[in-house]
């Protein structure tokens, strides 16, 4: 299924990364290439971009989209946690790095991998199909205490115990196979936390984070990213939930190699949120590699 993806905070990213002709940049979450395209355009005629994306189909679509800039970019099907090692091996340092965390509209609506609680799909949730554990494995195999811990640690779900109990009871009767099966189990167990939010929102978030080891990848990346930034080079990270945002905020503040440029996170304008509701929870933080 063909699904587009509207990139968020594009103007703000270009400004905060101070993208300029001839600069070298890295995009750790290429997705369908929206930000990468904007960076290549703004760094014309001779800027260069290293792109990382671990979902094969997204990368394929991005490659097509970026073809007008042939010769000015290199794409890797790789985890962004490996970006520092890969670029260091090539002897590369860049002026700016972007991470745009979270799900793309393609993964949510077009991948068929069970990321959405509104669609009947196999409960998979791997962003990279080379990963070994799926969401189906976790919901069917984890013990009750492990499920509670997963929902608390990765979903900050206050009703973790109730939901975990409902999952354990349901799977006693039948293995849980699809996204809608799981959504219905959670719907029966708890009410929505707030109006307009599906009761399974945090359950799906927690499973996705666990399957893709999202927090571990971000932590690993943050510990090494300053090494591949030129002095004065900038690191811009867009996050969509507080677990990630807190990690980024703390890492920026505590890393002596970095100087924080955004005391408060940059938020999308009302106009952007109206045009693109996915932007609603986006927060951009930026730090600069110290010059000495
Ligand atoms: C919000 S989307 C990025 C959208 C992109 N900025 C655009 O304009 O199209 C996040 C993307 O990052 C990818 N991703 C998430 N974690 C990753 C990781 N650890 N390594 C590589 N790619 C990752 C996902 O597969 C997804 O395509």
From TrEMBL:
GO biological process: rRNA base methylation
Record-stated family: Belongs to the methyltransferase superfamily. RsmH family.
Record InterPro entries: RsmH, SAM-dep_MeTrfase_MraW_recog, SAM-dependent_MTases_sf
Region annotation (Disordered) ranges: 266-285
Domain of life per record: Bacteria
CC per GO annotation: cytoplasm
Main location group: cytoplasm
Key word rRNA processing present: yes
EC number(s) stated in the UniProt entry for this protein: 2.1.1.199
Protein keywords: Cytoplasm, Methyltransferase, rRNA processing, S-adenosyl-L-methionine, Transferase
Taxonomy of the source species: Bacteria, Pseudomonadati, Thermodesulfobacteriota, Thermodesulfobacteria, Thermodesulfobacteriales
Catalyzed reactions: cytidine(1402) in 16S rRNA + S-adenosyl-L-methionine = N(4)-methylcytidine(1402) in 16S rRNA + S-adenosyl-L-homocysteine + H(+)
Gene3D superfamilies: Putative methyltransferase TM0872, insert domain, Vaccinia Virus protein VP39
Gene this chain is encoded by: rsmH
Annotated positions binding S-adenosyl-L-methionine: 33-35, 53, 80, 100
Compartments in which it is found: Cytoplasm
Cited HAMAP family: 16SrRNA_methyltr_H (MF_01007)
Name of the protein this chain belongs to: Ribosomal RNA small subunit methyltransferase H
């Amino acid at each position: 299924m063909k699904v587009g993806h509207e990139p968020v905070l594009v103007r703000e990213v270009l400004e905060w990364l101070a993208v300029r002709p001839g600069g070298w940049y890295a995009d750790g979450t290429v997705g369908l290439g929206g930000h990468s395209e904007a960076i290549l355009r703004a760094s014309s005629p001779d800027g260069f971009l290293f792109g990382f994306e671990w979902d094969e189909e997204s990368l394929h679509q991005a490659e097509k989209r970026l073809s007008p800039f042939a010769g000015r970019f290199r794409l890797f099907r790789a985890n962004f946690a490996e970006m520092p090692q890969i670029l260091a091996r090539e002897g590369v340092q860049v002026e700016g790095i972007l991470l745009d965390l979270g799900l793309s509209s393609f993964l949510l609506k077009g991948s068929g991998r069970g990321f959405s609680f509104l669609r009947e799909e196999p409960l998979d949730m791997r962003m990279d199909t080379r990963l070994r554990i799926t969401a189906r494995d976790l919901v069917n195999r984890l013990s009750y205490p492990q499920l509670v811990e997963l929902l608390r640690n990765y979903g900050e779900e206050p009703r973790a115990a109730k939901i975990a109990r409902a999952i354990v009871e349901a799977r006693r009767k039948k293995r849980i196979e699809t996204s809608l099966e799981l959504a219905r189990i959670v719907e029966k167990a708890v009410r929505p936390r707030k109006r307009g939010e599906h009761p399974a929102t945090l359950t799906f978030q927690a499973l996705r984070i666990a399957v893709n080891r999202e927090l571990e990848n971000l932590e690993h990346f943050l510990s090494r990213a300053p090494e591949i930034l030129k002095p004065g080079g900038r690191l811009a990270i867009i996050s969509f939930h507080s677990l990630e945002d807190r990690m980024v905020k703390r890492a920026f503040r505590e890393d002596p190699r970095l100087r924080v440029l955004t005391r408060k996170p940059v938020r999308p304008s009302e106009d952007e949120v109206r045009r693109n509701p996915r932007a609603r929870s986006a927060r951009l933080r930026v730090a600069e590699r110290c010059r000495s």
